[in-house]
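Sat 14:20. Reprocessing the chain from the morning session after the first attempt stalled halfway. Input below, unchanged.
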Amino acid sequence: MDLNLLKTFDVVMNTRSVNEAAVNLGISAPAVSHTLNRLREQYQDPLFIRQGRGIVPTNFAIELHAEIQEPLKRLLNGSKSRQAFDPATSQRTFRISSHKDLDLMVVPPLIKYRDELAPNVNFKADIEHLNEKDRQTDLRMRKVDLILATVPLEEHGYHNKLLFEQQLVVVCRKGHPRIKDSITQEQFFAEQHLLWKTQRMDNYIMDSLVLDKLPQRKEAYATGSTCNSIMMAAQMDWLCVTGVWHAKMMSKMLPLTILPLPFESHLLPVYMTWHNSQQSDTGHQWLKQVFEEVTKDLTSLYL
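Finished this time. Tokens:
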């Protein structure tokens, strides 16, 4: 079978639109319809049925798409990887799975780099993963090109590289009635805390990095965003533990006091992870080099 038939079918499945698929593929809508007709004859199934102003896939089309998706992407990406990737002219789209707190750090310098050296390349950083299984599946299926996370994927077939590390710090509002220019461990655990709910190694970020077992903090509020935590700390007599980059960035806009942790802690690492099937892809090799370049100033951030 002509590989382009399945490629067109894949785009129509993803867009649920003949016209949008035509735009994405750079061909005419009648050409897309002609391709679908050839596939209908091949499989003896209508594949798509009109519903309102759009189209919906048949059960057979859904099953077929699930079967061909991974091998099709391997074939298409394998073909692309044999060609020299030219960032100056490429129109390729790279999908990044990250976390909103990490996006704030890496997306602005990434886009600045893109605008200067690869103006037609697109980046989408719109996927978050809450568990390991989904991360592994999306990398293996090439639904995403790179994962940015605070823990590496240790399963066979995945590669990890440490991008940068940053120090954890304590943040409170200026004018806090008890915390001034320093904080002791006793003071730290006597206060109410905003907990950065994002977990690392089945634990809160801070608890996964401390060297010794510590008393439990008094929880005032828990949030999945460190920026939300910092903004609340600027308004309440609560403490929060966050990365030094976010603390310094938010302190430009908010009246904050930033202090070192009153106990020993490892640095918070950020890794990029990819699947072994991407190793020979020259575009993917460029992508990893770009991330190393745009994050080099984030390495080992300290007060």
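The longest helix spans residues 59-81.
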